[in-house]
Amino acid sequence: MTVKLPLIENLDVAGKRVLIRADLDVPIAKVKDGNSQEIELKVIDDARIREIIPTFKTILDKGCKTIVIFGHLGHETGARATSTFAVLGTLEKLLGQPVSFFSEALKQGRLNVPPNENVRVGLLENLRFYESEETNDKNFSEMIAGFGDIYINESFATSHRVHASLVGVPKVMREQNKPVAAGLRFTQEVSMLSRVLENPKRPLVVIIGGAKLESKLPVITKMEKFADRVLVGGKLPSEIAAEGLKFSDKVVVASITKSGKDIDEESQRRFKSEISVAETVVWGGPMGVFEEEENERGTKEIALAIADCSGYKVAGGGDTQEAIRKFDQMEKFDWLSIGGGAMLEFLATGTLPALEALLG
After folding, report:
1. What's the rounded mean pLDDT across residues 76-96?
2. Are 162 and 279 part of one and the same domain?
3. Choice between 74 and 357, residue whose per-residue pLDDT is larger
């Protein structure tokens, strides 16, 4: 399986307005301004944005007229959503140039650029203020498509969702014969994860943790057929037991500690034994509540075991990366995917809704 994505290297962006659906979903916190002492929102980890800055700079260097950046921030929707104004300063710092904020564009259906202002980079408001985003509303998609001449997806982490900005907009752009493409990071994600699907070195061991059995079950089922061993931890064993689900011997479901917040020592030993002989390892989701010292052992032991494995090592998702960072093993992995859910869905199905939207 080889996915041939439309690439930004092949785009003629000179003098064009370029829409970039960006991964802006970074952790933020309320902090006091040093001078005024007013409370304001600040980005506390800009890693996701830093990963996609090369795409912005490539497009700017190729002579585009403007870049219009849009995405979501946080899990809240509607009136409770957080304004993307919180990431404006981070974008300006990383790009090294001013970024204009168009707070009303998605409400008014137009970019109100002052006649005497030369806007090179603009940022739209949080898409999740608008229900039309998550319902993949065609009129909403057409409005956003009208803001640009070219569309680029640089939000792999959300590309498993059928939202307007990810599926509807590129569909409209293609219908209007406007170019669409995958960003540099998006292209890397597909390339590195495809290595797991295309004749992986075996044994192939897949470790699935975290929660949300509803979204993880299709992955477990697919990997049960494809992988040599599937190791299941986190909250999933409790959910599996509650549902009364059964799997083949390929799937090893962990036992949980009395607290219900970690996998037990016997499961840790079994998982480490399987990982030690693996030639390819995929990890998505922590084994327990690793943020708490008394419940970190399962996740830590698995992180260290994977790091010591000599095979090809891939991990994905915000919580998983946070755990790997906490236990100082970032450099030991061959690929750290931005997306947890998107990574697992891609590995389970070989595609994603937003990827299909780019391919047409």
Report:
1. 92
2. no
3. 357
